Amino acid sequence: MESARCKAFLTSAETGSFSKAAEILGYTPSGVSQLVTAFESDLGFALLLRSKRGVAPTADGERMLPAVRDFIAHEGRMYQIAAEIKGLSVGEVTIATYPSISTHWLPGVIQGFREEYPRIKIKLMEGIRQEIVQWLEEKRADVAFLSRKEPMSYDWIPLAEDEMLAVLPKTHPLATAESYPLRNCHEESFIMPALGRDADVAALFERNGLELNVQFTTLQNFAAISMVEQGLGISIMNELITRNWQCDVVKLPLEPPQKIVLGMALLSRENASPAVKRFVKYAAARLSRIETRR
After folding, report:
1. What is the pLDDT of residue 150?
2. Phi then psi dihedrals of residue 211, to 5 deg
3. Does 293 have pLDDT greater than 50?
């Protein structure tokens, strides 16, 4: 199996275009198309559906994607180990993360890591928890920054606890209170981020046997905060998400207090590439004493 053909197929499938794949891989679009066609000929079945709008994996192509990612990853690890033997630190690390972590934690981590390992490339993928887990499972990401949720089937490195807060409009009757009673939530018009299923918020209410009156759903938290500012309801989110947003809202601790644990997850730390292992070790040391509430 030729790695060039595998990379052409994988990049085309992920970008949805031979032209975009060509830009990434340094080929012409016709060159990428020929590599994919040759790969399909090797395997004996079609991998991509072609149309005027681009390309998309066939059902068989979807089944092949995890194996192709594995093949390319193993090849990359081989070259990284060879580079390590020669005294070089090279490679690529793909990180899946919440936008809040990529905003507040990762810039300093990446800057320091790149100073020590300038030949290791870093790629960031931002998303909600559902997306991050999917990217990790599909091996599109090497390491994920997210909150812990049981069952935890990954290698897990805890980094910090983060307090959950109620986000209220300034006109709310409890806006001047010291805390917000969690039991009151079922009486409120609730705004739920993460496509209406924020995993941390949902788990919080399940643990406490409460139901929510979800009136609005958003993708990102900043949209939910803006809706709270307009008096459309309340929301609950962890403190790191709310930091530095210029919205005129009230943030209160919950009663009883609630926290989540943020950390790093990998499918297998032992089997990770040398570049990934270096990044995980560096990030864990850098973030080990971080304080989320400031």
Report:
1. 87
2. -110, 150
3. no
Contacts for 274 with CB less than 8 Å, ≥ 6 apart: 77, 80, 81, 83, 84, 89, 91
Residues 95/141, Cβ–Cβ less than 8 Å: yes
**Side chain identity at residue 133, one-letter code:** V
When pLDDT is averaged across residues 195-215 and rounded to a whole number, the result is: 87
Q: Are 160 and 287 in contact (CB under 8 A)?
A: yes
Phi, psi dihedral angles at 249 (to 5 degrees): -130, 170
CA 154 from centroid of its chain's CA atoms: 14
* Separation in Å, CA 9 to CA 30, 58, 86, 93: 13, 12, 31, 20
Distance CA 127, CA 148 (A): 16
Q: Please give the domain boundaries of the chain with CATH numbers for all domains.
A: 1-62 (1.10.10.10), 161-258 (3.40.190.290)
Q: Which of 246, 249, 149 has its CA nearest to residue 204?
A: 149
What confidence score (pLDDT) does residue 294 get?
Answer: 42
Q: Which amino acid is at 278?
A: R
Which percentage of the chain shows pLDDT scores above 70?
96
| Angstrom distance (rounded) from CA 259 to CA 79 | 42
* Phi and psi torsions of 77, nearest 5°: -65, -40
Question: In this predicted model, what pLDDT tens digit does every residue of 253-274 receive, in sequence order?
Answer: 999 999 999 999 999 999 888 8
% of the chain exceeding 90 in pLDDT:
70
Of 104, 98, 92, nearest to 135 by C-alpha is: 98
Instruction: Output the pLDDT for position 291.
Output: 59
Structure confidence at residue 264 (pLDDT): 97
Q: Are strands 180-181 and 249-255 parallel, antiparallel or unpaired?
A: parallel
Element (H, E) at 216: strand 214-217
CB atoms closer than 10 angstroms to residue 3: 13
